[in-house]
């Protein structure tokens, strides 16, 4: 039996990387999938389109061009999901951006951009989705935090601030919607091989060596590692888990 049969999911930022893998896994588990992204094609040219993957497994899907910082666009994405599939069960707040600067070197517009997409975007999408999730028997919100939402690191002050916000927004929404039986949890990935870090992985041996040393497991993560955890949090197997931040980090935060 498929674990997400009869469910409809909106996955933000699902054209690339982790979101692409989550959307494809959800499709394979029987969900209808709405891809809400600013772009349709994956950021890395060698990666497969999420729509090809969804078609391959016979899942119904819909692309809604969505900037998660735009409240009207986010509301339209939720409306499109409900119009197309008759309801909404799962929201994955995955869209995110990453810049690497220490605080005193961070251009203020980059600080604003990163908190806008990563934190305010998570808030706006949740706000738009919750009234629909209240009608679902399998209502789940999964936020993408990070190891840098749990500990400092990466010389990325703005990113750490945004993901720390996502971590605690997750806990508060879990409390607010427990009565409504909406599970709200977060995933905190470690270093996962995507476009977000390809530049450093391929061109900066110093950072690469540092990250390898900080990852006890003898490899970095793949998007599929995060997708496996997302399926668990999206399914009824996690019905009594809420307000949790599940690390998918090869032991980074165990130290
Ligand atoms: P990615 O860059 O590969 O993909 C991000 C996707 O989000 C892209 O398709 C992009 O178009 C989309 N996006 C960006 N801004 C958007 C916006 N304003 N509105 C809608 N879509 C937008 O990144 P990834 O590595 O797959 O990261 C996914 C999530 O996981 C992010 O929240 C990221 O911070 C988090 N994360 C990633 C890692 C990692 O090592 N890759 C680690 C921890 C957490």
Supply the key terms.
8 helices, binds nicotinamide-adenine-dinucleotide, alpha/beta, seven-stranded parallel beta sheet
Would you write up a description of this structure?
It is built from eight helices and seven strands; from the N terminus they run βαβαβαβαβαβαααβ. The chain is of the alpha/beta class and 255 residues long. The chain has one domain (8-193, 222-249): Rossmann fold. It has a seven-stranded parallel β-sheet with strand order 3-2-1-4-5-6-7, sandwiched between helices. β1, α1 (17-28) and β2 form a beta-alpha-beta unit. The radius of gyration is 17 Å and the shape is globular. 46% of the residues are buried. The mean pLDDT is 97. Residues 12-13, 15-19, 37-39, 43, 66-69, 94-98, 117-118, 121, 144, 146, 189, 191-192, 194-197 line the site of nicotinamide-adenine-dinucleotide.
Instruction: Report Rg.
Output: 17 Å
Number of helices: 8
User: Poorly predicted ranges (pLDDT <50, ≥5 residues)?
Assistant: none
Biggest sheet features: 7 strands, parallel
Strand order of the largest sheet: 3-2-1-4-5-6-7
Q: Quick one: overall form?
A: globular
According to CATH, the fold-level topology is Rossmann fold
Average pLDDT confidence is: 97
Beta content comes to 5-15%
Helix/strand order: EHEHEHEHEHEHHHE
By CATH reckoning, the class would read Alpha Beta
Total DSSP E strands? 7
Class per helix and strand makeup: alpha/beta
Can you list the ligands bound to this structure?
A: nicotinamide-adenine-dinucleotide
Can you tell me the number of structural domains? 1
Family: Belongs to the short-chain dehydrogenases/reductases (SDR) family.
InterPro entries: NAD(P)-bd_dom_sf, Sc_DH/Rdtase_CS, SDR_fam
GO molecular function, one term: glucose 1-dehydrogenase [NAD(P)+] activity
Protein name: Glucose 1-dehydrogenase
